[in-house]
Design a protein that fits this description.
alpha+beta, 7-stranded mixed β-sheet, two-stranded antiparallel ribbon, 9 strands
């Protein structure tokens, strides 16, 4: 039984069309980046805004260059846990007036499943590598400048 050249060519075209469809149907989006000024530092941060980004956070990453800035829809007592974290963090809660309302420093990945919550409502959360707050003089009441691009 012989397969015609047209049939082989058609199968090849179909195969490559399928690959193109897979590639474009689930695009990988680059993270949204911006800059934050806090304490004595100006750092680059990834913005977590969607439900998926807010839930995933930095889980599963080996490190972070800068930090992650979580933007929540309203002021609340947002809890943060260290599920699937691979390095320790400083967690900084920021009010809607862009001042720090609560800080948890040097949180170990081993603290999971404990959930860390602020003592007052916050609108934003900044996650940075452990030691950042102490190194840059960050404390409750410190102003944060957020430069959205």
């Amino acid at each position: 039984m012989s397969i015609s050249r047209l049939t082989v060519f058609s199968l090849i075209i179909l195969f490559f069309s399928f690959l193109v469809f897979l590639f474009f149907s689930n695009p990988v989006q680059a993270p949204t980046l911006t800059t934050i000024s806090i304490g004595s530092a100006e750092i680059n941060v990834e913005i977590a805004r969607s439900t998926e980004e807010l839930l995933r956070g930095l889980s599963g990453r080996k490190n972070i260059d800068g930090g992650m800035w979580f933007i929540f829809p309203k002021d609340d007592y947002y809890g943060i846990w260290m599920k699937e974290m691979l390095f320790p963090l400083d967690i900084i809660w920021v009010g809607n007036d862009f001042t720090i309302v609560h800080i948890e420093e040097n949180i170990s990945p081993d603290s999971f499943p404990h959930t860390f919550k602020p003592s007052v409502k916050a609108r934003y959360v900044l996650e940075v590598p452990a030691g950042f707050a102490a190194q840059h003089g960050v404390q409750k009441g410190t102003a944060v400048e957020f430069f959205e691009r």
